[in-house]
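Dear colleague,

As promised, here are the two records you asked about, laid out in our usual form so they can be pasted straight into your sheet.

NAME FIELD: protein one
SEQUENCE, THEN STRUCTURE:
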Amino acid sequence: MFDRPQVGERAILVHIDFFSEGQREQLQEFKELAESAGASVVDVVTGSRNRPDSRYFIGTGKVDELQKQVESQQVELILFNHTLSPSQERNLEARLQCRVLDRTGLILDIFAQRARSFEGKLQVELAQLRHLSTRLVRGWTHLERQKGGIGLRGPGETQLETDRRLISGRIKQLKRRLVKYTEQRNLGSRSRRRAMVPSVSLVGYTNAGKSTLFNDLTDANVYVADQLFATLDPTLRRVDVQGIGHIVLADTVGFIRHLPHDLVEAFRSTLEETCEADVLLHVIDANDPERNAYIDQVNKVLKQVGADAIPQIQVYNKIDLNETPAKIDFDESGVPIRVWLSAKTGEGLELLQQALSDFLLQEKVNGWIVLQPQQGNIRAALYAIGAVCEEETNTNGDNLLKILLAKQDFARIQKKFAVELEVNPVGLRDKTDVPTMSALN
């Protein structure tokens, strides 16, 4: 067994075109992935096949071609733009005498580099161990025998079994730690729901400009770079939206074609912020010819994590690259469904604020009500959930309240106190004309 290098700098990319649409990958995107991981691409080997080879994934002729390039160009790493089986990785490494990594392993390596928070590091480690557990045989074929000899006689456990047991124990430990972090995050989510603070999450394909837009809206200093998976750890910030008040905006990890299942599972707890959002801002690169395919990929991942039913506003970013004017697109009901802007130049940001306000107000009760003095319990309940924006008293001693709250909370208040509240959503010039409340019989 040869000694594999810990990291690979000089790399050759292998990209095979298959006739099956489900197996096709994009070469340019793979180059960007390799560069994001820090690899120096010295060559790209391409080809086409009807189906992968069971032993090497590629044909023996391509293997011979790779072997010559590895020797002549002193290559340390071969990157495949596909998912390899453990046996295919092992066979290729034994034949090429250098490290071989598939698309899933490359994405896991990028995530390991980008993770900054403690929770993010735990999630990446969990995904890596799940991936590694199926590939242990690749590096331990020389130890597939029982321990023996003087001082080595033990319970009959092979080295491979020992490593699998240790990895299994570490995975259980990581899961327990992540459960604690999930519980802590849920506490924050519940407190925001009790205070009726709307939650908005940025989602989208990687490198669509989510973090740049997040910084523009929040004056935050989230790391931004023109590379895939520049943002990994989720970030929450408070934003003021006209007519709504405070909202919580979340910046999440970007998605990609064929995102490894282990990563989706490991980051499921982090993506729960997306599942609990009131609305998703789906950021799209308006200048990318593959944008429709990317929209489909993002929606597939959202379905995986259970966020496919949450309403979306599509945000077409980078309009400065194709000179598209900033605008809002509405549906037949007048609800905003699409905003065109440039996070880089700031053009159209005020339109996004307007679209958010219009959309969230569709789900809110916003207007004036009147409560008689003996109905102070209802007034107290509205204050307790933070629904009162303004209050005045008329000449009759009635309390005039301007309220803003979710429709379901408004219905809950009415049901609890068995009353029917009439709301003037326009606002009042003469507040004595506010409709009164009548008891339900």
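NAME FIELD: protein two
SEQUENCE, THEN STRUCTURE:
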Amino acid sequence: MTARILDGKAIAQVVRQEVRGRVSELAARGITPGLAVVLVGDDPASHVYVKGKHKAAAEVGVTTFDHKLPAETSQADLLDLVGRLARDASVHGILVQLPLPKHIDATLVLDSIPPEKDVDGFHPENIGLLAQGRPRFVAATPKGCMRLLAESGIDLAGADAVIVGRSNIVGKPMALLLTNANATTTVCHSKTRDLAGTVARADVVVAAMGRARFIRGEWIREGAVVIDVGINRTDEGKLVGDVDYPVALERAAAITPVPGGVGPMTIACLLENVAAAATPRR
């Protein structure tokens, strides 16, 4: 078989259209959603990501406030900026682009963002709400994966779901979302024994290791659904995922491409969070 390609670009367009409508409704009430983006240093990938976020925000009517800081910025100065953004009523969401320079404690910085402006969904309070099944903001990449699965008509109830990767950004919140959707969820990592065997039994595989083609195509069970979160640049300059795509394509029932799969969904769902943050609570 040849897998059905799950088109993240097309589904992200649907999400962005929904956000555009919500932003229009807020504008009628005199509210313009505002997203502050803080970028520290000169990481090339981060600059590309931030540029994409600004472009997408402009398309849906979200105002962005750009804060580009030099790599030598002190932790105290960064915390001071986050504090000022927290008090700014025109800023509804605060996004501190990762990674941060090594001399800055990323956990301390992310924890300093007020939970109600944490549109990245990384604050412990928001993770706790997600764990209880009553989320406020969900990290954009896992949220995008779930929307992509839903829009593609993939039923998760009772499915055997395997996540490869346990990061706070993707793996852990993804596990909570899949479990809340009634999947039976396994999280794998670098210490997992028989990773190939664990992946091979899965109905749904979420690859989020950040290692090019780490998941071999022959590990994928025939008829499985593969969500490839990874985006890696090879020595030849080609963008590839965490899954050996050509082989997996011939075994899976459905698969996300890289690029054009999860990436567009991440930005669309981030903007959805910003619109939600700007919506007055009843």
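A couple of things worth noting about protein two: The two ends are 50 Å apart (CA to CA). The longest strand covers residues 34-40.

Best,
R.
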